[in-house]
Every structure is written in C-alpha cells, then in structure tokens.
C-alpha cells in the first residue's frame, strides 16, 4: 500500500483551496499512491469564530459540491481520498472528515466527537458533535478517523480501540500561539505527546496538518507537517513543518 499525506496550503478562498486539493490528489495519483489523505478543515481552514452568522457559511453539506468534485478525481484516477471539512447539516455545523473510495463513493463520514474545535460558549445549537467512532473496511484493513483533539480524549480513544483498526487517520489543525513555525519546539514539546497517544490507540496512525500563515488565513494559521506513526509510537516517516506537498510512504 502506498499512502500520501497531503500538506495543503490553505488560504482565504475556499474555491482555490478545493482546487489545490484536487491538484494534489492528481499528483498523488501520478505518483501511484493508493490512498491520499488531507488535513482537518481543508476547504476553509479552521477559521470558525463561534458566530453562527460567519461560521455556517463555511460549512458544506455531505454529500455536496466538495465531495462530488473530489469523488470525480477518485473515480477517474482509481484513488482513495480523505479530507476534512466543516459540514453543514441544516442549521447545525460539524467538524467532519470524509473518506471516498476509488469509485468516487463515500465510504465514511466522521463527525468529531471532542468539542474543542469551538469555544465552550458555542456548545449546543449551531455547534454540534458526533457521538460515535465509525469504521470502514478498505483493501488495507479497517480504517478509523479521529479529528485533532479526539486523540487526547480518553473516551474517544477507547471507542476507536474497540473498532480494532488497522489504520487511523488523524487530520488536524495546529499552530503555536505566537505563529512561529518551529520544528525543534514541535519535536521536543509536542510530538512526544502525540506518539504517546498513538501508543494508547495501538494502530498505525497517519497524521496530517494544513499549512497557512496568519496573513493569508487570519485566525486560521497552521504550521503543516505530516507523520506516519507505528502502533508502538515510532515515527516511521515525516514531512517537516512549513513544507507544502506530499509525504509518500509504503505501508505493509
């Protein structure tokens, strides 16, 4: 199995972001990747500000225009694709991720269970969470998605472990509060916490973060990076912070 983790450069124009996602999916197919995975909120960035008048406009239905556009690429290129997006369902908004198979069909829609993608005052009403961790059967085994802070939620991790996944995909959106892209700081103070949580999961985990600075995406900056982590917490492959593009690796 050849997997690509796509560090997408995200800006203020969702149409351009979707176009960039599609372009990277084609690049992955050109590189004979079987499965390409994108970050959290890849269409807009995680720029919600807890004001429904602003935030609902960021959401897309599932299925909808984004899944249809990506599904066309998946079907044309024989490629599985996963990406995160803010999902609008009626008057509700979810932090979601979808997995599309090589026929262009939705195989999995996951709604983040951990609520920390929005402020505590925004809980309920417009801002909603999923309650379950579903799984999908793929040619490479059982596949599970966790989104960002789900990895640090013991209840969500316990649900994921019950699924006995072979692969866990972790799309996330992270930056440092000071906006600095600091690889040493990440390696020393942050990555060990992630690898410890992967050990609790006990499954190969594919982590991918989007790339954006505060100038091009106000309130949604993120420093990128992609990582393949073994069930025992060993980093098998990684793409440095601050670099857009594909991390390609072979999995058993």
Give a short summary of the structure.
The chain has helices at residues 14-30, 52-55, 65-77, 154-162, 183-201, and strands at 2-7, 35-37, 80-89, 92-100, 106-111, 135-138, 141-145, 167-172, 204-209, 211-212, 222-223, 226-229, 235-239, 245-250.
Structural write-up:
The protein has one domain (2-250): Carbon-nitrogen hydrolase (Nitrilase/N-carbamoyl-D-aminoacid amidohydrolase), CATH 3.60.110.10. It is α/β, with parallel strands linked by helices. It has 5 helices and 14 strands.
What's the architecture in CATH terms?
A: 4-Layer Sandwich
Strand content: 25-35%
Considering the protein shown, what is the CATH homologous superfamily?
Carbon-nitrogen hydrolase
**Shape call:** globular
Helix content: 10-25%
CATH topology-level name? Nitrilase/N-carbamoyl-D-aminoacid amidohydrolase
